Amino acid sequence: MDKSILKKLSYGMYIITSKEQNLLVGCTANSVMQINSDTVAISLNNANYTTKVILEQKKFAINILPNNTDIELIKTFGFKKSNEVNKFANVSYEIIDEVPIISNTCGYIICTLNNKIQTNTHTIILGKIINLKQTNSLEAMTYKYYQENLKGTTNKTAPTYQSEKKTTTKNVFVCKICGYRYETDALELPDDFKCPMCGVGKEYFEKL
Ligand SMILES: Cc1cc2nc3c(=O)[nH]c(=O)nc-3n(C[C@H](O)[C@H](O)[C@H](O)COP(=O)(O)O)c2cc1C
Question: Is 50 in the pocket of ligand 1 (CB under 6 A)?
Fold first, then answer.
């Protein structure tokens, strides 16, 4: 099956946040959609710590990222685990309705968990909107913008990118969506290969 048409689907760029007692959690996500005027859906990987916290606390916020978002913010929330590092250590935020709201975004949508649909990899969480605000008029970042402008530039200029490329003797596959690198002796990825970071299939991987 040629899945290339899936690349034509459009997404935004968000950080989904929640709070477990004193622990602030959050993850980068592109899979957010509005269902109706008071319901939104997010799709979160079952392995994400944020997913566990949202399912337990039944409350979360969608922070809508603008085009001028620092790539480091997206990486911190998109590659690290909330139960291993404090992702909020260098981030400006405030607690609203008991969930962390990141400063300098386009705005936020705060939800209570309304329903969920479990798949083998992801949980689709339906949220009932309880509070929301547009905090400025910056343009919201799209997934396409992230891939083409932000991530492309960062990958190519990062010093580690060069040195890793020179020293490895393995085949290196890079996720075009989130930048995850997978090294293997195999010439090709298996058909059922999924990105452990963002969940996309092998067709999104580029061989270096
Ligand atoms: C650009 C980008 C988009 C992502 N989109 C999603 C997404 O829609 N759903 C998801 O579950 N994870 C997504 N991820 C992966 C999570 O952000 C990542 O696994 C994170 O480290 C989980 O953190 P946590 O364990 O603290 O929840 C994305 C990552 C990146 C870099």
Answer: yes
pLDDT band per the 50, 70, 90 thresholds, residue 183: confident
**Which of 85-89, 194-198, 201-205 shows the lowest mean pLDDT across its residues?**
194-198
- In the reported structure, the alpha carbon of residue 162 is separated from the centroid of ligand 1 by a whole-number distance in angstroms of 25
Q: Which amino acid is at 96?
A: I
Q: Which domains does the chain have, with CATH numbers?
A: 8-142 (2.30.110.10), 158-207 (2.20.28.10)
Structure tokens at 41: 């859906």
Task: For the full predicted model, state whether its pTM sits above 0.85.
Answer: no
**Of the listed ranges 52-56, 87-91, 110-114, 144-148, the one predicted with least confidence:** 144-148
Atom of ligand 1 at shortest range from CA of 28? 17
Using the CB atoms, write b or e for 92-110: b if 16+ within 10 Å.
ebeeeeebbbbebbbbbbb
Q: State the pLDDT at residue 107.
A: 98
Q: Which residues, 6 or more positions from 128, have their beta carbon under 8 angstroms from its beta carbon?
A: 38, 39, 111, 112, 113, 114
Which residue's CA is the nearest one to ligand 1's atom 4? Answer: 29
Ligand 1 centroid vs 45 CA: distance in angstroms?
7
> Is 81 a pocket residue for ligand 1 (Cβ < 6 Å)?
yes
